[in-house]
Amino acid sequence: MSSQQSPVITPPGLLSTDLDDLGVRFGPEGGTLRVWSGSANAVELVMFDTADLDWATATVPMEPLGGGVWAATSKRLKPGTVYAIRVDGPPGPGATFNSGTLLVEPYSRGLVSGGYGDWRSVAVDGSFDWGGVAKPATPMDRTVIYEGHLKGMSKRHPLIPPALHGTYAGLAHPAMIDHFLSLGVTAIELLPVHAFITEPRLLEHGLSNYWGYNTLNFFTPHAPYATDEARRQGPEAVLREFKGMVRLLHEAGLEVILDVVYNHTSEAGIGGPRSSLRGIDNNAYYRQHDDGAYIDVTGCGNAVNTATDAASRLVLDSLRYWANDVQIDGFRFDLAVTLGRDEIHHFSPEHPLLRAIVDDPALAGVKKIAEPWDVGMGGWQTGNFGDGWHEWNDRYRDRVRNFWLSDVDYARRASTAPVGIGGLATRLAGSSNTFSAERGPVASVNFVTAHDGFTLNDLVSYDVKHNLGNGEQNRDGADTNRSFNHGAEGRTDDERILATRRKAMRNLMGTLLLSAGVPMITAGDEFGRTQRGNNNAYCHDSPLTWLSWDHAPWQRDLLSHVQRLIGIRHENPALRPVRFARLDEHTPSASVMDWYDRHGEMMSSERWTNPAHRTLQYVATSTPEAEHPNRVLLMVHGNESPIEVTLPAVDGVTRFVSQWSSADERPSDEHASYAPGDTVSLEGTSMHLFRAE
């Protein structure tokens, strides 16, 4: 990496008033367009006929206002106007100006296409009647995230009209809302819905960029997810359908979180498309060496250079727009480490953009979730983001998978597991070894699966990835999955193996939903969907990735378990502390945890680490500020041999009432009661939860 950034002309600060009101604003004199380019010699606004995108109806030179901002006002620029910009500038290392290239204006609220790679911006009014519907504002400790693909969730739903399948309107259909509410989740996290395109390489193979991590524009909703009727009416109607989806989900009490990709764009590496930022001011918007070669810390060909004020402000303004104009409740930042890299490309949690996102009053109350890594040097930063940030916790994912899957696989081969239960206990309790006391357990977004990787079903059914259908000779996708097929690779008719897999799924889901922190479920895992062993299905827009709503009895049973677990989590504040408890102190909104072994005795240091002792009981006692106190006991048994466990004597507890067991094929409605000192039989590799009274 070069230690010097390519020289750029920067505005006087991230929050400079010079950078206010970029994009199109409407007024009595028509529309005014403001564009930033610190290095340009000339900028033009070009307007087009709405029916013929090749027919330029007017060209207006833009005037420099200072601070790198260029502006033009025209009565022709009004809602519905199709337009583009052209930018000219001096040659030099990293400069890619071309005065003949039509460019997407970065703050566009709407886009239309004249063919692959041929885009025009559309001026959008954006007015919408929210009908007084407010954001649900669900506290983080009560949040249960459901991560899914907007199209894939509703594409095959039999109760949704075909015209709405896979659309914004389809996601807000009563059938989908009923599922979300019956499941008990509180927030729908959507894979990217900013306008994106498919890479030429995938098109050549008859594939597509299904996931959408290839952003064309940070302000425009992806038009192909709108209904045909909205698309015929144009970008204004597409945006209106998107807002209508948000309003209906909010009416149901469901938050909407967007997975946002600000770390790179669809312009890819040098030689890729010059569609927007590259043609406007390449040196300012992308990280480069002195000779103009890109510094790629994302693995996608380019990296947005948030060390410059213009690039950071573009990100911040996009967030403000979606959070306020579109009423989005939160954001999950893809490869968020890239956003926190400075002028010498080092990560800092105090990066001006990261702090601005947290401190901006316009983003108050908005959930900010970092994917705390990228592929550059020093790119793994789990636990290192600052106050106000929540993070995907890959350490949690790996430990939980190890305990229930790869450790069990190892034990079958070597007669004992490689590690004891101490590491899992730390994750159950909120990952205090990863997140500071000031941030607490809700800084951790816990997950066992995500869109990227095996589904829950595939995690217990495949030892290795099966990605040949991606066209890369099975080279793509993670090789280390910490999965376990339980005796057969993929499909099998062996009922013993199938039963063990089902219990493993219940253990994984039970751990996720009973752990301190914020749980995230991947769409379809609640009924055990499969991608047939493909752990990188980003390029498949097909039944492989669309949710199937035709479920076998065992899938309905798994769904019932997930519903029961989310309900238990909601009812028991001891399972969702906001703060870490402190020894010999009363900490409000924490959970005091006491740890016991299989005999009901306090855990010894030897048993924490001994691989032969993978059985644990813990009692969590809440110290809530706004709820009734409560107490639960969870048994965890990580060996495949059954075991007898003695319930501990706990001050103030006279009985333990069964709430849930992973050993049950279907959740039991019988809530057996036990006294301290009673024994409970646990199946091999199982969990059992009790309410302590």
UniProtKB/TrEMBL annotation:
Name of the top EC class for this enzyme: hydrolase
Source superkingdom: Bacteria
Keywords, ordered alphabetically: Glycosidase, Hydrolase
Chain ranges of the Glycosyl hydrolase family 13 catalytic domain: 147-569
InterPro entries referenced in this protein's UniProt entry, alphabetically: GH, GH13_cat_dom, GlgX_Isoamylase_N_E_set, Glyco_hydro_13_N, Glyco_hydro_b, Glycogen_debranch_GlgX, Ig-like_fold, Ig_E-set
SMART domains in the record: Aamy
EC number: 3.2.1.-
Family note: Belongs to the glycosyl hydrolase 13 family.
Protein name per the record: Glycogen operon protein
